[in-house]
Amino acid sequence: MDLWWASLDSYLKIMWGLAIPFSVLFIIQMIMTFVGMGEHGELSGDADSDADIQVSFQFFTFRNFVNFFLGFSWTGISLYGAFESKILLTLLSVFIGLVLVTIVMALLYALSKTVQSGNIDIKDTVGRTATVYFPVPAAGKGTGKIQLSIHQAVREYDAITQSEALFPTGSMVRVKEVIDAHTLLVEKI
Questions:
Q1: Residue 15: what pLDDT?
Q2: Which among 1, 89, 151, 189 counts the fewest CB atoms within 10 Å?
Q3: How many other C-beta atoms lie within 10 A of the C-beta of residue 151?
């Protein structure tokens, strides 16, 4: 390993130095996405109407950062011998990184269009009991997630509380008030 690394020129060392950690981060992101721990709020399946679907397509996100450097570094490594000019290779690597980010953003946009809205009125959640899915922090310290069954469908909503205590995963809560189309105020039962 030391002999292989020492034989590389500085350009390839930089590219491998980017490729390895960003590939690991990409694999971790993929596992988290399939397990259901993807980026918070990226795609929301609990929309009440098509107008309520709010998917943020920001260019500067951690996912796009990882995707860019994944495409950039592996292009630089793969095409290293094909170009005499490292500047041209770097420009091509930047282009491929941007194309990869654009493709992922387009796929996420297409997926967001497949979100189906149900006929559930969020106001029907008030007074219902729910289970904490992602810990609900104390008042003013962020949002958690709850799951509740309503009209024979399990829905997931962001949740906040006025309590000074954290509501851990698995605890039972009651919906006290609707804050907005995706956020509910809850209290411990």
A1: 94
A2: 1
A3: 10
Q: How far is 106 from 94, CA to CA, in rounded Å? A: 18
CATH of the domain at 139: 2.40.50.140
Cβ burial of 70 (10 Å; 0-12, 13-18, 19+) is: buried
Nearest to 46 by CA among 185, 132, 162, 145: 145
- The per-residue pLDDT for range 135-144, each reduced to its tens digit, is 999 888 889 9
> Which pLDDT score is estimated for 188?
92
Domain membership of residue 147 as a residue range: 122-188
Give every residue of the chain whose pLDDT is below 70, as ranges.
1-2, 36-59, 114-119
Coil, strand, or helix at residue 18?
helix
Mark which of 78, 113, 148 sits at the end of a domain.
113
Residue 178 β-bridge partners: 184
H or E, element range at 155: strand 153-161
